[in-house]
Model the fold of this input.
Amino acid sequence: MAAEREPPIMGDDLFGLSPEPSQGGSADARKKPAPTQPLADRLRPQRLEDVVGQAHLLGPEGALTRMLERGSLASLILWGGPGVGKTTIARLLAQAAGLKFVQLSAVFSGVADLKKAFENARRQAEAGGGTLLFVDEIHRFNRAQQDGFLPVVEDGTVVLVGATTENPSFALNSALLSRCQVMVLNRLDDPACEALLVRAEEETGWPLPLTEDGRITLRAMADGDGRYLLNMVEQLLSLKTEKPLDAQALSRLLAKRAILYDRDREEHYNLISALHKSMRGSDPDAALYWFARMLEGGEDPRYLARRMTRFAAEDIGMADPHALPLAVAAWETYERLGSPEGELALAQLVVHLATAPKSNAVYKAYGAARRAAKATGSLMPPAHILNAPTKLMQDIGYGKGYQYDHDAEEGFSGQNYFPDGMRRQNFYNPTGRGYEREVRHRLETWSRLRDRR
Done:
């Protein structure tokens, strides 16, 4: 009986000859890969239609497909996470448009590199050719460097394709953005990751040593990053395993990709917005998920405690007067216990805030009162509610006619407390939810008494 084949060892015959490229492929695909060439680079698509996960841009009705069909490739900003195909798409766009591909990285390039690239592009244009200048991590260029692209983009010296993982609205200046079209690349979804796994198996000639749930876990561990997924595939193929790995065994052997989260960047604001709106929408499960996502990403629990305390005042208010002191108590509990024990108190707070009755009536009332205060200037309080500690103040009417509410019928005098010359205004309009139902009843009763008096 023939001996069973063993998986190839990294750096050995794993990097054999690549399969013959399709008719649309480049000559590079026929070259024998270097022994150290990563699998992700070996599987880099040779045609735009082979790029996975970006059908909204590269499918039959995709924005880039239509642009190429019209023969008018515009300058672009490719915005997406790591490992979603930004560099590959830029290279293939140059190939499809018949442009010379020039690549720079904003991390390693400076003004001198840009000037040299622009001069080479001008010579290329004079010779009748065109240049696609691909700038990786373009958001790392400062404002002055970004402005340097404006003239060469405007006069068509280069077709600029910038790649960024940051929100272009914040990372790039408006002048450059106005001259480029922003294309949003999706993180690779589960079917796209599976397509990459199938290609990896076809390329190496070896099935991945995984059970079905192990395969699902591998795709999840990549977190939408195709390059990271293929790097994990390489690690797997270098292992000698007697049986396929299940989810638990795989998690012990491979490191999960670090969660994409920057505490001072867009992802931070996206997730706190998701947490806030989930609590406002009374969905404790979604709220707990976003709360956990932020903690797993390294967010300071104190920041979350502060934001939830604000939420208790802004979105719950008097509908549940206990929400605000509970928020402060949860915050204090975390300060005393620290992580991870104190995080449970914050999780309890998330659930309470999400399930509490909601009212922004106090929030709206405060805003209305501030606007009125700005509009009315320095009006004095009515004299009858002013203290009169001196005889002069008594003589000019301070405190005259004040009615002590505790001595009035039903403990309510109904006097006017707004400035003289300012009509009474209604800022606070409680809802009929939670405790505000009772508050609303009281205010309606007092309004009727005030009208009678």
Q: What stands out?
A: The longest helix spans residues 436-452. The beta strands are 76-79, 100-105, 131-136, 159-164, 181-184. Residues 1-30 have pLDDT under 50 and may be disordered. The two ends are 107 Å apart (CA to CA).
